[in-house]
Amino acid sequence: MSDMMDDMEEGGEGVVKKFMFVNRKAPHGTIYALEGLEVVLISAAFDQDVSMVFVDDGVYELIKGVNTKGIEVKDFSKTYRALEGYDIEKLYVEKASMDARGLTQDDLIVDVTVLDSAEMANLMAEQDVVISY
Amino acid sequence: MKIGIMVSEGPYNHQASDTAYLFARTAIEKGHSVPRVFFYHDGVNNSTKLTQPPQDDRNVVNRWSKLAEDHGVDLVVCVAAGMRRGITDDILAPGFRISGLGQLVEAGIQCDRLVTFGD
Asked: Which option is the CATH number for A17-132: 3.30.428.10, 2.60.40.420, 3.40.1260.10, 3.20.20.70?
């Protein structure tokens, strides 16, 4: 580990930052959504102020009734319901992304807060760390 | 300013790793520090010493190694993403190490900025 990293270790204790994970991709087709969930769960273990955002095709990650048997990949959609157990309760969905795909909150497997694009932009501006995939 | 970096695409197929490298190098030249680069998703493929690009092209992996050597940048490869893609300790290029996602979160906590490169 470098000297710079050693410097960084000092003073990092007890810091709580606002972490936002921006989910922009469909759950299947690429691995971003599945692998992205892993860092979300880790961040909770670091006691950070975590929120998740679902925009663009990312809203499909929360859709009910997923069945991945036909494409022979793991169905991880239930993981979103387990987030609450990790104290990750701030889930936001962009209204325009849902509207463009004909989705409503009734189509989603978890309770979310729906924001318009301006509200979403304000929320993003408040964050310390935004990790997008 | 302390700048952490996340790279989420592999070399050559995508420009993310090139841009991240040029950003890191320039930031250091301008007097900032880049304590850590975290390789996630297909970004883990930037860490293998087995790559052999043509002589007349840039060597993406070696450039990262040199940045680590010259400036003490900590190049961290996600263990879970690496295992999926066959990235193990014995094929790591110099300067890279394999560790957990906590290293990415830690960089986010301890750096002034975390900059992500990918799709």
From this structure: 3.40.1260.10
Residue to test with chain B: of A1, A3, A5, most B Cβ within 10 A: A5
| Ordered domains of chain B (ranges, CATH) | 3-117 (3.40.1260.10)
For residue B81, give the H/E element and its range: helix B79-84
What is chain A's pLDDT, residue by residue, as a tens digit (133 residues)? 444 455 455 445 689 999 999 999 999 999 999 999 999 999 989 999 999 999 999 999 999 999 999 999 999 999 999 999 999 999 999 999 999 999 999 999 999 999 999 999 999 999 999 999 9
Q: Which residues of A touch B (CB under 8 A)?
A: 1-5, 7-9, 11-12, 15, 17, 19, 31-32, 35, 38-39, 42-43, 45-46, 48, 128-133
Closest of A34, A52, A41, A119 to residue A89, by C-alpha: A52
Q: Please report the ipTM that was assigned to this predicted complex.
A: 0.91
- Torsion angle in degrees (nearest 10) through CA of B63, A4, A40, A119: -100
* pTM exceeds cut of 0.90: yes
